[in-house]
Amino acid sequence: MKFIVAIEPATKRSVWGAAVPDLPGCFSAGETIDEALDNIRDAIEQHVEIMLEDGCPPPLPNPLSVHQKNPDYKGWVWAVVDVPVEKYFGPAEKINITVPRLLLARIDDYAKAHGLSRSGFLVEAARHVMQK
Question: pTM for the complete prediction?
Answer without folding.
Answer: 0.75
